[in-house]
Amino acid sequence: MERRLRWATEEGNGLEYVAIRGTPQGVVAEGVVIGPDSGTPYEGRLFGCSYAIHCDAHWRVRQVQVRLAGGAHLLLRADGEGRWSGPDGAPLPALDGCIDVDLTCTPFTNTLPIRRLGEALRERREVRVAYVTLPGAAVMPSRQAYSLLGEGRYRFESLSDPFRADIETDADGLVVHYPGLFQRLD
């Protein structure tokens, strides 16, 4: 898979560019985000960041790196079975059971459980993710659910709060429209 995509936030003038490529180990996505100048998820704070997400051939996250312009740097590693560690190799037991990552600034991370679970999403599936808030770069476990509504349409549910969205994707499971948050530009 080789893709290059752009998204815009639906409020606040935020933009993203991501390059996705296949590797012998799986998939790597490298993105650059210019955070929006308004919007609840970002607390109205301006920010910019780059990220790299490395997945194995089954779309299980193996490494996440986020660099905030002029700020924090985050590095997480995962074994693909739900065990995570920090940059020094120390275990992060709070993230036990998390297979996917969810970065608040990008719709790309919705692709991870969609691709990993595939046909299993014909039934609603709950997932546990390492949830990374930006611009703060805090990491916490989060429970979410995904289900297939029809071709290229998935329901996303946060099980931590009442948020829910029906996401449109292309044939590769990459977000085309995330109502209220993101719209693909290409």
TrEMBL record:
Highest taxon in the source lineage: Bacteria
Name of the protein this chain belongs to: Uncharacterized protein
| Pfam families, per database record | Glycolipid_bind
Q: What is the lineage of its organism?
A: Bacteria, Pseudomonadati, Pseudomonadota, Betaproteobacteria, Burkholderiales
Native source species: Massilia timonae CCUG 45783
